[in-house]
Design goal:
Elements lengths: L11 H8 L3 H9 L7 E2 L5 E2 L2 H15 L4 H12 L5 H34 L24 H4 L20
């Protein structure tokens, strides 16, 4: 971030430079209601006040914490009007923390499932894998052949060449 003094009125280019986002991003934020519509100079160019820089930095910081633009939009107007207190922000942060915890649990479950699937592979690494044995769910556990462990073949003895076309 630049330590240059903030002018009382900035062009979109200067705001982009000082906030570290592109001019397209600033226009997008304006269109999405995340940034107030700026005043226009006599030449028709956007002119932003110093509050715009603080707003863009807030939006970027909230995004970095995992908040969606919709979630940010719901709070920026009330925040600017002084209608949001610390308890409101703490609640929003706790909801995000709970979401992250739930996501971590789902990722741990996925990791266990991936390890289990890797442990159930019943072919020699160089062999082609028939679709029926590619995943545990593809097997029919009710048939004796599916329950029996298939014989392992030597790497060069596969009946099914790897990635053979036309089959």
């Amino acid at each position: 971030m630049s330590s240059l003094p903030r002018p009382s009125s900035m062009s979109i280019g200067l705001l982009a430079e000082q906030s570290g986002v592109s001019t397209d991003t600033l226009r997008f934020y304006e269109h999405q209601g995340l940034l107030d519509t700026p005043a226009r100079g006599a030449n028709g160019y956007r002119r932003y006040g110093p509050e715009a820089l603080a707003r863009v930095r807030f939006v970027r910081g909230a995004q970095a914490l995992g908040f969606s633009l919709a979630e940010i939009r719901s709070i920026v107007g009330r925040l600017a009007a002084g209608l949001v207190g610390r308890a409101d922000l703490e609640r929003a942060l706790q909801v995000k923390i709970d979401d992250v915890d739930a996501h971590i649990r789902r990722l741990r479950d996925l990791k266990r499932a991936l390890r289990a699937a890797a442990g159930m592979l019943d072919c020699v690494p160089a062999d082609a894998v028939p679709i029926a044995s590619a995943t545990p769910k593809a097997r029919n556990p009710r048939t004796p052949a599916a329950r029996a462990s298939p014989k392992r073949r030597s790497p060069g003895a596969s009946r099914h060449p790897p990635f053979a076309g036309g089959q």
